[in-house]
From TrEMBL:
Residues 44-249 form the N-acetyltransferase domain. It holds the Pfam family Acetyltransf_1. This is N-acetyltransferase. Gene3D superfamilies: 3.40.630.30. It comes from Deinococcus arenae. Keywords: Acyltransferase, Transferase.
Amino acid sequence: MNGPHLIDNPAELRPGVQRRRSPGGVPGAGGLPDGGSTLRGVSVIIRVAHSSDAAAVGGIAFETGFFGGSAARYFPAPELFSVLWAGPYFAGAGAGLWVAEDEQGVAGYVVGSPDPAGYRRALRQVALHRAWRVTPVAAVPAVARYLVRAARMPGPHASEARFPAHLHLNLLPRLRGQRVGDALLDAHLSTLRSLGVPGVQLSTTSENRAALRLYRRHGFEVAARRLLGLWTPWLGHPAEHVVMVRGLP
Ligand SMILES: CC(C)(COP(=O)(O)OP(=O)(O)OC[C@H]1O[C@@H](n2cnc3c(N)ncnc32)[C@H](O)[C@@H]1OP(=O)(O)O)[C@@H](O)C(=O)NCCC(=O)NCCS
């Protein structure tokens, strides 16, 4: 994993959100160093994720995995969700892994992979070697139901040749609405540029309105949309899946 990075462009951050080097890695139990001016008394740092953040990132993925709410309603196996959704990025396939941390701990992340084949390899590895250990038997029918539906109703994708990277961005509710998403996305896109990646794609739905606005602000455009019944049993209606793309000149 990379060491901490400092990005000197804090102008658009709301008070209390700082992109900063964290010299000793994750601040210890004594609290965050150098809080600066704060919003509602809370200080947030954006830092490179370490492998020790994998469980926290997986936990947030689960807590936000249903349109910003908990994935528990369709996937009642939090550890398995964490392994499948966060594991590949921390198992060698990821780049530009950043977290947002406040005084209560890691509460947001951006993860992604610039290498589709490497990502699929890493996903196979974690699925084969770790998934069975963390799947409660009682959860198997619900998990299988979701995975079969997802396999039968794939969302749209953009060209992997033009947009080889993909990313995921999620915040716990306590960090939302403070432009933390902007800071994480800027950091991630800078990393991709420094690696010479030509373009990036992401998947969302038209239900995720805040996310759509944020991605448009960062130059993403809609490449494809598809109405799918994947979420109907839990959402009550079909959802329009949206793939957005951005070149990285
Ligand atoms: C989508 C998300 C990454 C946006 O990041 P963010 O840092 O909250 O973005 P912003 O600070 O720009 O706020 C987003 C919008 O929500 C509004 N908002 C304000 N307070 C909010 C709160 N407490 N909770 C949610 N949204 C809030 C903001 O006003 C803003 O509206 P605007 O775009 O019209 O200005 C983040 O809200 C999130 O993780 N949501 C849940 C999971 C999700 O949808 N992830 C994306 C999946 S593709």
